[in-house]
Amino acid sequence: MVNMKIAIFTNKDQDIINFRIGLINELIKRGHQVFACTTKTSDDFVSKIEKTGAKFIDLKLKRGLKLFSSFLYILKVYQVSRKNKFNLCHNFSFKPVFLATIGQRLSGIKKIICTITGLGIVFSVNNKSLKIYILKKLALIGYKISGLLAEKIIFQNREDKKLLIQKRIIPEKKSEIIVGSGVDSNYFSIDKIDNNNLEKIREELNIKEGEKIALMVSRILKEKGIYQFVEVAKNLREKSKNWKFILIGEIDKSNPMFISEKEIEGWQNNSYIIYLGGKDRDSVRDILGLADIFIFPSYYREGAPKVVLEAMSMGLPIVGFENIGTSELVENGVNGFLVEEKNVKELSLATEKVLSDDFLAKKLGEEGRKKIINLFSDEIVVNKTIGVYNLN
Predict the structure, then answer these.
(1) Strands, DSSP E only, in the chain?
(2) What are phi and psi of 15, to 5 degrees?
(3) Separation between Cα atoms, residue 2 and residue 32, nearest integer Å
(4) 388 pLDDT above the threshold of 60
């Protein structure tokens, strides 16, 4: 295998840390020179990326699809790609998939791989507004261009692939499926948790002996099912005060679907939930180790949600909606329960069923862990991804 210059393009540095480190580590291990082409948000994130041996390139990508900033981004990608003479570029998420692909092709790069990590909000909502219609049309145009210019398009679930092939946006011969971004099953393992640390967290959260924890980790957006999670908490807290509901996630005020601090504060004041704000990766792992069940009632059009993979790896049973992406990971009655989208009554019943039956919860969690080891571990997903590169 010839050593190559391989560039990974994402929206921001945190995406590299959360989703692409395993891929970068393996590429470097195989002797390739790797470039992380993204947007700097934190010196700490950049430092972690550079410790892998990858070169960090800050592209200063801005949110939104404004014409001038999009043109500038394409120009930056063109300049960076031409200067470094990448042998292969792999683009993740919509804007890199759409815009970076154009810049790369203009610079003369032919080997371009794109991963569609879920079709997102505009394909999730039933809103028929002119704005949603225009955004959806723009997205389809972007994917069409990517389908023409890229060598391969990787989907994270079958439904996204089916939709874009049926609409003749992506050619079937260029399409691949690799479910999820992989998860470090050694790191996300209940065996790696420090029990003393768990006891410390229990004390901080005032979790008493015999109390159980239902956990949700997500961006605090309406379409992620935050309201439904709170309704379940409200319903079940009336049945048992021994069940605590913890919510973790950042409030993204730049997203029109964000939920305000004031509303969250009201839920806390009523003792429905405990909100812990955004947490780093290590803290999330510890709280996953403390939890008894993971609830993910998203109706956002997910790719294959990484946080669900991490919860499964930690041996947690999963309860959520029958949603695209989540359904790729959770097998009903095997490693969790999925119910009809937005059906809070059924979601409450499924959650209660798992919290009330320790044997069932343990069985579901063990099956989830097995699925990670056999299907979704970093090693498996990374090797499949590099296989698509066809570097020989």
Answers:
(1) 5-9, 33-38, 55-58, 88-92, 112-116, 152-155, 175-177, 212-217, 243-248, 274-275, 293-296, 318-321, 336-339
(2) -65, -35
(3) 8
(4) yes
